Amino acid sequence: MFVDCVEIFIFSGKGGNGAVSFRREKFVQNGGPDGGDGGDGGDVYFEVDTNTDTLSSFRGKKHYRAQNGIPGESKNRTGARGEDLIIKVPPGTVISDVESGEVLCDMIEQGQRVRVLKGGNGGFGNARFKTSVNQRPDFAKSGQDGMSAHVRLELKLIADVGLVGYPNVGKSTLISSISNARPEIANYEFTTLTPKLGVIDLGDFRSIVMADIPGIIDGASEGKGLGFDFLRHIERTEFLLFVLDCTYRYGLIQQFENLCLELKKFSSVLEARDFGVVISKVDCLEGDEEIKGFFEALRLDRAFDSKFGSDEDLGYYLALQKEVWEQGPDSLETNTTESGKLKFVLPIASATGLNIQALKHFLSNFTKPKY
Predict the structure, then answer these.
(1) 117-148 residue pLDDT tens
(2) CA–CA separation, 79 and 18 (whole Å)
(3) 346 pLDDT tier (thresholds 50, 70, 90)
């Protein structure tokens, strides 16, 4: 089961008590105090583990405690330190305090380890309190109590490209045709209920990661449906890819504007992210008037009469991408693209493979491939 948000209670260890003891040996008179110190309590750490990809291991268990320190003993023996508690989380986990809302740490890199709670100090034994005027102290210090916190673990997937679109517009089909992901595909909405990651092979040992999230509905930024759960998974992506369905009940422009609005409401960071647009299911169209209208609305109108899928048509979109790239976002006189920079618009048909290779080419240009 995919779990991406849990709340748990964590406790560091209590310090061990100091010992009250006096040296008692044959032929040794006035041995004096020899009570040892208590051991420190264990700390609480969070550590990134790439062998996990969800927070499902935290289901059914809410309390996590580090080990307490061992009390001191006679003969000035210090108690053992409590064992640290190391909680392993998948990369991309954000740990925040539930009460204050403060972000305690953001776990991204493999092997990253962060101490969240420090264990209590061990108490001093009575040997520590021996002085010239008090040679027989009969008291010792108690160990300090450990710390506690109520924290929220929130997983935000780490990917290079994030897919954005309405339900059933072809996102799952696209990621299955361009990457190694194999999500469920069916002709009804919300076949994707959990985020999916796919690795896109760019050749020469280069690859990028694409994230497919469940479809965004109107009002997702306000929490409608599972909007927050869906949108947070593309916050870390370097590049956004809008998937617009030319056969959807909403027109291309309405889909694009609504999606931009939801991203803007949810996060100003997402609003400013560079993005590209793919128009899916063009193999189902008989004409190109719908797409022409979309280009005209974005001030990218340019006459063309070629059939979808022809070499001339692909060349047209390559030229369009180059033109927008060179002129920059100022050439796009529309309020929906003022913040983020539109990099390309490409019609595709995932089922037939139309322009899939061209899409890989574009994504490799606008992301930083992993080696």
Answers:
(1) 999 999 999 999 999 899 889 999 999 999 99
(2) 8
(3) confident
The rounded Cα 5 to chain-centroid distance in angstroms is 11
pLDDT (tens digit per residue) in 75-112: 999 999 999 999 999 888 999 999 999 999 999 888 89
Q: What is the mean pLDDT of the chain?
A: 80
Helix %, strand %, coil % for the chain, to 5? 25, 25, 50
Full strand arrangement of the beta sheet holding 148-155: 63-65, 5-11, 148-155, 93-97, 103-107
Token pair in block for residue 268 = 């100003």
Provide the token pair at 246. 């030319």
CA angle (188 as vertex; 252, 166 as ends), nearest 5: 30
Neighbours of 11 (CB within 10 A): 21
Compute the distance between CA of residue 144 and CA of residue 217 in angstroms, rounded to an integer: 51
Which of 15-19, 32-36, 192-196, 273-277 shows the lowest mean pLDDT across its residues?
192-196
Task: Say what the pTM is.
Answer: 0.67
The confidence band for 316, taking pLDDT boundaries of 50, 70 and 90, is very low
Angle between helices 171-178 and 356-366 (to 10 degrees): 80
What totals of helices (H) and strands (E) does the chain contain, helices first? 7, 14
The position carrying tokens 């009390």 is: 71
Look up residue 102 and give its two tokens: 């403060």
Q: Which residues contact 237 (CB under 8 A, 6 or more apart)?
A: 159, 160, 161, 162, 211, 273
Distances (CA, A) of 163 to 183, 192, 306: 14, 12, 28
Q: Is 211 exposed, middle or buried (0-12, 13-18, 19+ CB in 10 A)?
A: buried
Of residues 343 and 33, which shows the higher confidence score? Answer: 33
Please classify residue 256 by burial: count the beta carbons closer than 10 Å to its beta carbon, then call 0-12 exposed, 13-18 middle and 19+ buried.
buried
CB 251 within 8 A of CB 296: no
Owner of token pair 């048509």: 313
DSSP calls for 144-177: PP--EEEEEEEE----SEEEE--TTSSHHHHHHH
